[in-house]
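#dry-run=false #mode=assembly
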Amino acid sequence: MAKILIPTPLRQYTGKSDSVMVAGATIGEALGALTTQHADLRKQLYNDEGKLRSFVNVYLNDEDIRYLAKDATPVADTDIISIVPSIAGGRYGD
Amino acid sequence: MIKIEPDAWQVMLAHARSAFPNECCGAMLGSSDGDTKSVKVAVPLENAFEGSQAARYDIRPEDLLAADREARRQGLDLIGIFHSHPDCDAYFSETDLKNSCPWYSFVVLSIKKGEFDHAASFLPDFEQSAAAKEELVY
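#status=ok
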């Protein structure tokens, strides 16, 4: 089973656990298992179309899955999956 | 309410001053107890925006991942993000809002003529359409 590290503000949806062990052969399956175990996380991570929210990045160990095979990225038992926000800004509007 | 401990605040001020006239950015590590957050460590991060950084900042996700790992190592939590507005007030701009994440507090430092002027903290919503002001103590 792979380990998913849970960001602090989302631990209220995982019974305060800072990580969750999940089964799944791919990132998509692992995140699916996570949001099945902890249903309230789904709204935090996915939009109404079922896509990861724009501010959510997923890393497999040290690699952004967008540069791997996205949801189809294979996951091994020793892997660590991280949920990392995308953050930017600036003093003026666009 | 978010309270920034003196050592962390000094790190944030120094980072904002040294980046002037560009925007700085960084992570805030600490702990939360209900609606009360305490920032114990500030981690300056590199502004990765490609272009003029006088009015923009961008945090590399891998830098934020490293900050989160450092927080875990120290028994702390990643609880917020800070950045500066050079020669501009500490409000939450449209650009800040559209590139925000609702999970964290966002502290903005106003740096005018190279010196700290004032600061404010914001809690953006899910739709990235509004940000409530949060009481800030430093």
